[in-house]
Amino acid sequence: MNPLVVALLVFVILMFLGMPIVFVMTFSSLSYCVAAGKAAFLMVVIEKMFRGMDSFVLLAIPMFIMCGEVMNRGGITTAIVRFADLLVGRVKGGLAYVNTLASTFFAGITGSALSDIASLGSILIPSMEEQGYDKDFSCAVTAATAIQGPLIPPSIPAVLVASATGLSTGALFWGGAVPGVLIGLGSAIVIFIEGRFREFPKRTERIPFKEAVRVTLNSILPLMTVVIILVGMSSGGFTPTEAAAVALVYALIITTFIYKPIPLKECYQICKNVLIQTSTIYLIIAGATTFSYVLAIENIPTKLSNIINSFAHSTFSVLLIINLILLVWGMFMDTAPSILVLVPILFPVAKAAGVDPIHFGVLTVTNLMIGMLTPPFGMALYTTQSVGKCKMVNLIRTLIPFIAMDFVILILITVFPDIVLALPRMFNFC
User: Fold this and answer.
1) How far apart are CA 277 and CA 359, in angstroms?
2) Strand runs labelled E in 30-94
3) Among the four residues 233, 359, 413, 421, which has the most C-beta atoms within 10 Å?
4) Sign of the alpha-carbon torsion through 26, 30, 36, 39
C-alpha cells in the first residue's frame, strides 16, 4: 500500500477514536516511515519535531498566555465588564451588548477565544440569566463574541501563522484588527434583530458621575496593553516576542500596584496553567511539523495547487476553495494543529494565485475561528457548554444567526481584501 495512504488512514482512524491530536500526527508520520521502509526517516522525524519548536517567534506564546492569566486573576476582567456596562448597559438588551463589547476589549489582552469564554462567561452568563435572558441565548452570545479574541491583537493563532509562513507578526496583528471588530459589530446586529422579537431587559438605574469616572479610569490601564504591543511593534521598538515580554511586565505592574495583588498561592496556579497550555501548543507544533514534512515529501502542496488550479481560474475562485477547505477542516480539528498542518500546504497555493500573504493569513484565522463555533468538534461549543451548563443542541440552534453573520463578514473580507490590508499598509507592513 502507498505509504501516504497508510499515514492518512492512521490519521483518520486515530482522530475519530479520540486520541489527542499531537499523537495522531506523530503516529501518522511514524507509520509513513515504516510503510516506506526508510528507517533513516525516523531520525529525520525526531529532528523535525525539535526544529519545529525551535523558533524565537513562538516564545511570545507563553508570555501572552501568562499576561492574560495575570490580568484575569488580578480583577481586570471585572473592570472591563463594568466599563462595557457603563457604555451600553442602559439600552434594550444592554447586558448582551455588554457581553459583546467586553469580548472586544478582552481580546486585546488575551488573544484567546477560550480564555474569553471561561473568564467573561463565568461572570456574564449568570448575570444575563438573573436579568431575564434565557440560558441558551446567554451562552450563544458568549460563544459568538469570543471568536474576536484570536483576530484582534495580540493573537496566538497569528503568531502560529507567522511561524509557519515567515510573515510579519505585526502585519498579521494589524490585519486581523478590523475583521475582529466586524465580528463584534455583526454580533451586535444579531442581538439588535433578536431584540425586535424578544423582550430583552435593560439597566434602568443611572451610574453616578463619580462612579463612571472611576470605572473609566480603572479600565484604561488594561486596555493600554494592546496599544503598547502594536505601537512598539509598528515603531520597530521591539519584536513580537519582546512585545509579549513587555506586555507581561506591564500586566504584573498594574495588577500588583493598582488592581488586586495576586497571592503567592495563585502565582503557582498561574505558572501551572501557563505551563500546561504552552506544553500543549508546543507538542502540537512538534507533531504538526513532522506531519507537514511527510506531506512535503509526497509533494502534496504542488499536487493540491494543480488540483485547485484545474477548478479555479481566478484569484477569487482560489480564495473560495481555500475558504471551503479551511471551514470544513475547522469543523473537525482545533485551531493550532489546523494552522500548522494546512498553512504550509495552502500558503504556496494562495501565493501562486496572486493572493496577498497577509490577506491569506487573516482569512485562515477567520475561517478557523468560525470553525470553533461549528459542530462536531468546535472547541468554543464545548467550553461554553461547560461554563454555562447549557444543552449542546439548544446552543447550536441559538448560534445559527451569529454563524450566518460571521459568514457574511467572511465573504466581505474575501471579496474586499482592503478591509484586511488597510491597517498593515498604513503602518508600512505591506
Assistant:
1) 28
2) none
3) 233
4) positive
CB 159 within 8 A of CB 405: no
For helices 335-352 and 315-330, what crossing angle results, to 10°?
A: 170
Of the two residues 350 and 90, the one the predictor is more confident about is 350
pLDDT in tens, 292-302: 888 878 887 77
Residue type, 112: S
Residue 164 contacts residue 87 (beta carbons within 8 Å): no
Please check whether residue 113 is in contact with residue 372, taking contact to mean a CB–CB distance below 8 angstroms.
Answer: yes
CA–CA distance, 93 with 167 (Å, rounded to integer): 41
> CA-based Rg of the chain, rounded to a whole angstrom?
22
**Residues 64, 247 contacting (CB under 8 angstroms):** yes
Going by the DSSP 8-state scheme, the letter that residue 58 receives in this structure is G
What does the DSSP assignment read for 273-325?
HHHHHHHHHHHHHHHHHHHHHHHHHTTHHHHHHHHHHHH--SHHHHHHHHHHH
Q: What is the pLDDT of residues 209-220, one digit of tens each?
A: 888 888 888 888
Q: Find the DSSP H helices in 235-263.
A: 240-257
430 burial (CB, 10 Å; 0-12 / 13-18 / 19+) is: middle
Q: Which amino acid belongs to residue 100?
A: T
Distance of alpha carbon 420 from alpha carbon 430, whole angstroms: 11
pTM: 0.85
Residue 262: DSSP 8-state? P
